Amino acid sequence: MTAATTPRSVLVIEDDPDIGSLVELHLGDAGHRVVVEPNGSRGLERALSGDYDLVILDIMLPGVDGLEICRRLRAEAHHIPILMLTARSTEVDRVVGLEMGADDYLTKPFSVRELSARVKALFRRVEAFTADTAISEDEILTAGDLVINRARREARLSGEVVNLTAKEFDLLVHFASNPGQVFTRSQLLDQVWGYAHEGYEHTVNTHINRLRSKIEPDSATPRFILTVWGVGYRFPGTDELEGPRSC
Description:
Helices cover about 40% and strands about 20% of the residues. It is built from 8 helices and 12 strands.
């Protein structure tokens, strides 16, 4: 079955009843199971405890706001896609949301057609990522003392588990799966975040800085995420480190 016909479970955290009903109606017509929660605190509880394939998340909410919900979901290593909604005219909330781990955003007012297209794209992205990482539990990538288990979504450095957010882990896997290849910031946005939007390249910088602070003994002289000045970043080739290699 395709992403368009496969039933999915969607949590909509939105306090505007008209928007909540509109989203529920159209995603329900597409065959998805939709739950609408108008309160941020209860929405966070549902998102953390429920089994959902997508969270559509408003920023301005009673109880707990959308940015905090996004942060909490990613801190708990929840890999569920997040589509963020914002009614604000500035880009600040969108940038912050994307940097916290949101996968995409829509600015209110939005068309039903655009919403449906974004939702379908997120589901296709998840299916593609799942197919790419459908490996056995004992298959890993190694690079020196860095060990990455893609199936368990776990990274270890010198035997110690590295606490990575979902997007940091995806970024690390992307680099380690392509040793020696140089990626521009725009390419990383498109291939890891799943969108290409001019002006958001600093999101890549932020995540790389955070990732380096967690896996590099000395982030000033990195071993794993190397800067190619004027171009982008790369992971060391197999002749520079032991790996990455599949076991």
